[in-house]
Amino acid sequence: MFEIIARQELAQGTVVANDIMAPKIAAKARPGQFIILRVNETGERIPLTMADTDPERGTITIIYQVVGKTTAMMARLGAGDTIMDIAGPLGRPTPIEKKGTIICVGGGTGVAVLHPITRGFKQAGNKVIAIIGARNQELLIMEDKMAKASDELLVCTDDGSYGHHGFVTDVLREQLQKLGDEVKEAVCIGPVPMMKFCAKVTEEFKVPTMASLNAIMVDGTGMCGCCRVSVGGQTKFACVDGPEFDAHQVDFEELSRRLTAYIPQEKEAMDLFQHKCSCEA
Amino acid sequence: MAEAKKAKKEKIPRTKMPEQAPEVRRRNFEEVPLGLTPEMAQREAGRCLQCKKPACVTGCPVEVPIPEFIGHIRDGNFEKAILALWTKNSFPAVCGRVCPQENQCEGKCIVGKKDDPVAIGYLERFVADWARAQSDISLPPIPEKTGKKVAVVGTGPGGLTVAGDLILKGHDVTMFEAFHKPGGVLVYGIPEFRLPKEIVAHEVAFLSQLGVKVECNVVVGRMITVDELLQEQGFDAVYIGVGAGLPRFLGVPGENAIGVYSANEYLTRSNLMKAYLFPEYDTPLVKGKKVVVFGGGNVAMDSLRTAMRMGADEVKCIYRRSRSELPARAEEIHHAEEEGIEFFFLHSPLRFFEDDKGFLTGVEVQEMELGEPDESGRRRPVPIKGSTKTMECDMAIIAVGAAANPLVTSTTQGLETNQWGYIVADEAGKTKKPGVWAGGDIVTGAATVILAAGAGRQAANSIHQYLTWGW
Fold first, then answer.
1. For the segment A25-38, what is each residue's pLDDT rounded down to a tens digit?
2. Mutate which of A33, A40, A218, A273 to disrupt the B interface (most B C-beta within 10 Å)?
3. ω into residue B157 within 30 of 0, thus cis?
4. CATH superfamily of A2-90
């Protein structure tokens, strides 16, 4: 059992942050790694990335958007409640070294994943420019933390309610035009279309780019192959070979399709859950 | 001997195991064989010749004293029977159900030379089930603690055997499991209708009662390494029994279509995560109406029969060799056929087709014929030129074996692996790294539950020797 120590709502309650007591994971986790959790006995196993870790306090912070039954159940848990199983850290850590200027681009809850990676690059002595975006100001998350983790933070909203009016890809292009060869690497994490278009932009400028892939997983140890993705024409497992891959080689269309595998079942489970909740209320 | 002579004279036929009728069981997840009654078991036990030099025992990887436990059943002394079984096998309820007896004990049975062999597997299961129903069976005596600590990585049949053996020798044993439930392949791989999960839980609980510690959600190689277990956690020895753990795919185009599963994924979702109880349980599965399964081993049979129980209209087994090469247990093949599984021998996949949303719609297969024997001694299937066909399907399960998962091996210093990534170990499971043993599929490649248990037995003896006398 893993106890939730603190709960915070972000982005008008559509996103929830939980600090969870998990000292062994907190001690071992590196930027880019993730956990797999199961809320209760009948729950499914879902992968979630860690937005932060505090080895001294023994906690990890997970941030998730409420999209299905599992996250809806989790959103109802408060401080003092428990999550039945958490396994981690899983996946390969981000290869972080001093390279020069790094651009980190995040969209939606992808910003949570991006946060420790951004901080890691900065701590390694890189100049880090972070670009984060959301549909509007209310949905933007972790602005203050990202400002602290980077040297320069650029914010954009699709509707122009805050920061640059436009997509992260527009700001990314501007920066690449401005900085030229100075940019040694880009990291883009967010919804699949966002990562796909970021990769297209950086490819024009020949900037090596990593994307963190949010494939559906079961075990997270390479045992089942559920999370297989095509990278450079080869099948890779996101859980053990990734979750980060060369964004210029990733077949994002295939990833998008595979993420839709269980939409009818997800809807069925969610409808049942919400019906049960409304009955209880 | 009197009974044996009588049996010979009367020719008692081998007892038939009562089973759920095929037309009923093909749509439920209840166990298929229902078990013998005490009367049936005693009668079947009477067929045993009580050989002085029992060939059956030589066919058993863990050398169960077969005539002894069967003799006790014949005499109606079931408690003595289970105690005899337990001296060599920590989980007879599992082995009685999943061992390929026809190639092992029963394959060597002398009665089987002229008649059907004694149903050793049924009898083993009978005693184990009898024992599980008793509340007052005394635990084996636990010796004084030696103060030595052993880590067992993986809680499948090999790990369970090592843990059981070493706790009874007075060592302190901790098992590490990557999943949230212990049992390894017994829990995620073998379906409920062949091995009820309650039985596995009971076997693990038995070990816990003896003092074995079980830590779930620990992915060795990520959360902790074998070297850390030895150097920082104070373990004196480590047994690696993690299984093969990496699914093989076919490597044909279209394999990433939605609805194409590795058997590992399909069975894990169904067995460990209980997707067959969706939406009561949250884990989903694509509900295939037309299902094809590639492969002919026990895992393929489990996948086929699970798909049928999940409500498929048609389930096809596609195997590239012929019927006589099918590696699955005879009983599984027989059960699958009874349940309406169709077999397509000498067919090999060429490519999968998907619709514009990425969902599987069909598979093109190549017809094969048997050519010259290959290195395995089996005749190699070769394509018949120009002979292909397309089969419609909305789900495909790939059950063509497993490869070595590098998660543990690649994070352990000085652990030698062979060219396929399997751990190099001697017959006792001793690896090239001092203090580390390995056994089961991660050493031999994909095999059976009982071979893993046998490897665990050898390793436990060797570890005990090491903890007593040194490397």
1. 999 999 999 999 99
2. A218
3. no
4. Translation factors (2.40.30.10)
